[in-house]
Specification:
272 residues; alpha/beta; Nitrilase/N-carbamoyl-D-aminoacid amidohydrolase; six-stranded mixed β-sheet; 16 strands; 28% helix
Length: 272
Amino acid sequence: MIASIAQIAPFFGNIERNIEKHLTYIELARKGDAELVIFPELSLTGYYLKDLVPEIAIDPSFKVLEPLLNASNDIDIVISFPEKGTDFNYYISSAYLSKGKIISIHRKVYPPINGMFDDLKDYKSSDKIESFKANNINTGMLICRDMWHPEAITELAMNDAKLIIVPSAVPLRSISETGPNIKGFIDRSVIFYAEHYSLYFVFVNRVGFEEGVCFYGGSTVANPSGEIILSMSLLTEEIKFFEIYEREIERRISILPLQFEQRKNIGRYANE
């Protein structure tokens, strides 16, 4: 399967313009024969919404998403937005669109509350992590800070996820002679998770500036052998493509069947 990453800078607080930008990148993905295009965290709105969240959050009808749902008839699309739940709480959410429908929504489980972030002031955290079938591949989604918690990755892996997608909005902080220090941490995490769990791990970061904060991009994909197969530019909007090979997943699992070993021992540990 050919997949693509649209590393974009969203227009702050403007869903209509962001939908237009999404449609432009979706068309580029189609021209590259992609079957899937993935956008970063809060791609439809920008990040630092604060008091705008109740005004701009997408309600349970999802009617505003119709242009993107229509676009998903011939290509799968991962988008992200502030969601107003049926419980009247607000969530940072990512949705997987396919064949004109939303087939899965992941709500951020670990909104950050340190440093420049205070997401729990505006959003509720979720407690649900699940995998789903898309393009004949068991898939799971997390959002940004979720991936910093290994138990979230393990939960998806134990539910047979072979592709993990992580839309993100990670800002640029300290820089060394090798580049942003945070990028090194992210890349090491992506490589470890992909190799340890024999899956494709896709980290999709945004670019652009908000409230004086720079988001650095550097989206990264690793294959089940722990090899980085895609590393995107810093600070630049772009679309790039990569391939997912089911045979590579099967080969790695046959060599290192860690999920089987973990499942086998979960019950034994519980009974001790």
